[in-house]
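tl;dr need the bound structure. longer version: we got a ligand (IPE) that a collaborator sent over and nobodys looked at where it sits. i said id run it. heres the input, straight from their email, havent touched it
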Amino acid sequence: MSEWRAPARLPRHVAIIMDGNGRWAKKRGVPRALGHRRGVEALRDIIRESSDLGIAVLSLYAFSTENWSRSSEEVGALMGLVLEFFRREIDELDRNGVCIRILGDVAGLPAPQRDAVRSAMARTARNEGLRLNIALNYGGRAELVRAARTLAVAVRRGELAPEDIDEERLAAALDTAGQPDVDLMIRTSGEMRVSNFLLYQSAYAEFLFPSVLWPDFDREAYHQALDAYAARERRFGGRQDKGE
Ligand code: IPE
Ligand code: IPE
Ligand code: MG
């Protein structure tokens, strides 16, 4: 066990863009699918650690709406890992009180994955521990479009007036309805872009871009990120007068 102590100021909502599996594999001369497999191992530890630390919400970017454009071999490997993850992990996640939610268009997933994620959500819906959001077939723009449609339907039915649409109503129509905004957004592998992840919810998130590739992101790297977050000064557009 490490001597590390969780900082007093923990983020409520941590979002992670798990990037760098392909480069991890390339560096070792092994197939990309192996990099993804090691990536799943890394995420199991980060989920456990988030639970242990009492993080309220953890959002993991697993597959974007743009990732369908990868080779069918790679898409197949990733979809296979999705099934394997739920089959292997669901008992432990449930036992630990983790509540699973899928962000993204579940209806657009292949049938086996769709069934697996729906049953995981149903089984853990009443759990009160870590809220684990897994973004699958997710894009921030697509999510906003779906939310706009939901609100438009409510207006057409006469349940909502256009002038009643405010930031809160829009947030409530997103896949993260009822959850706090992202406090800390981490993207591994040194890439510094948001790649369509949680565009609305990360308006005032703190961003960290550690250079470590995702399969190597371990508890220690996570602790470093949480320490860096705790040292940040958040302003939300206001001023933080230091008593001068
Ligand atoms: C992230 O790793 C996993 C997914 C996008 C599914 P990548 O596969 O993007 O890895 P790199 O960016 O090629 O290294
Ligand atoms: C973002 O990573 C998506 C996931 C981690 C699931 P990508 O590797 O797909 O993003 P780009 O193409 O580098 O922006
Ligand atoms: Mg990538």
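gonna send this back to them w/ a short note. The CA atoms of residues 105 and 137 lie 6 Å apart.
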